[in-house]
Design brief:
Helices cover 54% and strands 8% of the residues. It has 545 residues and is α/β, with parallel strands linked by helices. It folds into four domains: 6-172, Rossmann fold, CATH 3.40.50.300; 178-238, Helicase, Ruva Protein, domain 3 (Orthogonal Bundle), CATH 1.10.8.60; 245-334; 409-507, DnaA, N-terminal domain (GMP Synthetase, Chain A, domain 3, 2-Layer Sandwich), CATH 3.30.300.180. It has a five-stranded parallel beta sheet, covered by helices on one side. It has a three-stranded mixed beta sheet with strand order 6-7-8, sandwiched between helices. Helix 9 runs parallel beside helix 11 (231-238) and helix 19 (412-432) crosses helix 22.
Length: 545
């Protein structure tokens, strides 16, 4: 029997078996149940997230003779013959991107379906079409015959003309979560009797970057060796650095062990470790350390780690194909190591005693004069903790209020308009504001209204850093685009939560109304101790909203 690769063998054949796209599936099923089939859809999202599979299932469902709650029955003649149905036409725009192929479609759409209710055209990688092909498709896409449905799929929505987008119902396929991919891999291993450790499957889920197809391909490759799959197989075959090695590198870094850092980086380079995966893992480690320093009020060491994270991230943007990336990484890390053997190492433990707290706070005193009477260290620490809480509370309020206010008058047109301006602003910041550029390079606008816009980034730590720079970002946007906007940044996880909240609010008839940013942030009166602290300490240490 011919072997079938895993991603084809376990391709979804109904809506229930589609992983990680519950929101999109629900929309499509409801449109079938309520008989509100749009004439054109565009599915967008990263590779391997189920766009083409969903298009095929949707084609089968709308032509099913006995669909149940939007699901294809899988038993009628139309369902059984889906792969050979002449009324479901799948086209790869990457290899059929000329105007002649599109004209052939235009000529054929007028012909009624042979067996089915709808004739469905699935155009994959639609962003590869030529400009002339897009122009030829426009009129037919806007007003096709009632028996025709277009489903366009793309991994690069930015390259699809707005004239095409405006004629389609857009559905975004999000990256599948690591937990969902792990769950699916576990199921496939049980069905195929593949012996793989949970640790290995979790690592496969991580390196697949939200694509289930990629994860299944990796599992397929490793299972061909006919032996148990463990975490070392992942590290050896896919250029991934282990968590243990990241810990070793950090130990060398904090101890100013130059030779140790050089040896490890040389080991990563010689073993073929992906520099991008290494940087991502090391930045994640540094992020956790930076948070520890911040909680410990160690501003000096926090700033050091903060700057190193930015510099490492910049390595990903400036690497030239003619230069070994590890040379840049090596120089970047060495810049932060000291040659002074007597210099104190970066602390790995949280300093809880009063003596250490006093030393940290004293580094922030502006005046060089000796201060004879200072409030008790315990009181000063309480002031800092109180201020830190207010700052975090303020950011949380800004996030919630601005997202709420953006939903009040948000439209698709505003989003498209501001998204274009945002991309141009990011390019502008590359030359003039490199630190902010490093934070926003992978960001995108996901919601916009006349006054507000929501920025989305991958992780929560980056979102928090961007939100602390909102005033500067808004000034840059005003200066460059001549548009006065209020921004807010959310991680992918928080944005998904806001989408779910929006759906539930709409379902329950809750109307979004504008909220005042200032009134929602509690005003904290300064105590006598706080006033004295303001006289002694710099504003960088103690600020009040």
């Amino acid at each position: 029997m011919e072997y079938k690769v895993l991603y084809r063998k376990y391709r979804p054949n109904n809506f229930e078996s589609i992983y990680g796209q519950e929101y999109t599936v629900e929309i499509l099923k409801n449109s079938i149940k309520n008989n509100k089939i749009s004439h054109a859809y565009i599915f967008t999202g990263p590779r391997g997230t189920g766009k083409t599979s969903t298009a095929k299932i949707f084609s089968k469902a709308i032509n099913c003779l006995d669909s149940n709650n939007g699901e294809p029955c899988g038993k009628c003649s139309n369902c059984l013959n889906t792969n050979d149905n002449p009324d479901i036409i799948e086209i790869d725009a990457a290899s059929n991107n000329g105007v002649d192929e599109i004209r052939e479609i235009i000529n054929n759409v007028k012909v009624t379906p042979t067996y089915s209710k709808y004739k469905v055209y699935i155009i994959d990688e639609v962003h590869m079409l030529s400009k002339q092909a897009y122009n030829a498709l426009l009129l037919t896409l806007e007003e096709p015959p009632g028996h025709v449905v277009f489903i366009l799929a793309t991994t690069d929505i930015q390259n699809v003309p707005i004239t095409i987008l405006s004629r389609c119902q857009r559905l975004d396929f999000k990256p599948i979560t690591t937990d969902k991919i792990f769950e699916r891999l576990k199921y496939v291993c049980e069905q195929e009797q593949i012996n793989a450790s949970d640790e290995a499957l979790k690592e496969i889920a991580i390196i697949s970057n939200g694509g289930l197809r990629d994860a299944l391909s990796v599992l397929d490759q490793l299972s061909g060796e006919n032996k148990a799959i463990d975490i070392e197989d992942i590290y050896r075959n896919f250029g991934i650095v282990s968590t243990k090695k990241i810990e070793e590198l950090y130990e060398c870094f904090i101890n100013n062990n130059v030779q140790g850092v050089l040896n490890l980086l040389n080991e990563f380079n010689n073993s073929g470790t992906s520099y991008s995966i290494f940087i991502e893992k090391f930045i994640k480690k540094l992020e956790n350390i930076a948070i520890e320093f911040k909680n410990n009020y160690d501003i000096e060491q926090f700033n050091k780690i903060y700057n190193l994270i930015f510099d490492l991230n910049n390595c990903l943007n400036v690497v030239n194909i003619n230069v070994n990336p590890y040379i840049l990484i090596e120089m970047t890390i060495l810049k932060y190591l000291s040659n002074n053997k007597n210099e104190k190492n970066i602390s790995r433990e949280i300093k809880n005693n009063s003596l250490e707290s006093e030393k940290i706070i004293s580094r922030e005193i502006k005046s060089e004069e000796k201060i004879e009477e200072i409030p008790e260290i315990k009181e000063k620490k309480e002031i800092l903790e109180k201020t830190e809480d207010i700052n975090e509370e303020f950011i949380d309020n800004v996030e919630n209020i601005r997202v709420n206010n953006c939903f009040v008058e948000a439209t698709k047109d505003y989003k498209i308009d501001i998204a274009k301006d945002w991309l141009e602003t990011i390019e502008y910041m590359q030359e003039n504001f490199k630190n902010i550029y490093s934070l926003t390079i992978d960001s995108e606008i996901v919601l916009a209204s006349p006054k507000y816009a929501v920025i989305k980034v991958k992780n929560n730590s980056t979102a928090r850093l961007i939100n602390k720079e909102l005033a500067k970002i808004e000034d840059i946007f005003l200066e460059f685009m001549n548009k006065e906007y209020k921004f807010v940044c959310l991680s992918e996880e928080k944005w998904e939560e806001q989408i779910e909240l929006f759906k539930n609010n709409k379902k329950n008839g809750i109307i979004y109304e504008y909220r005042d940013e200032i009134s929602d942030v509690p005003k904290v009166e300064q105590t006598e101790v706080e006033k004295l602290a303001n006289e002694i300490f710099s504003e960088d240490v103690i600020t009040y909203e």
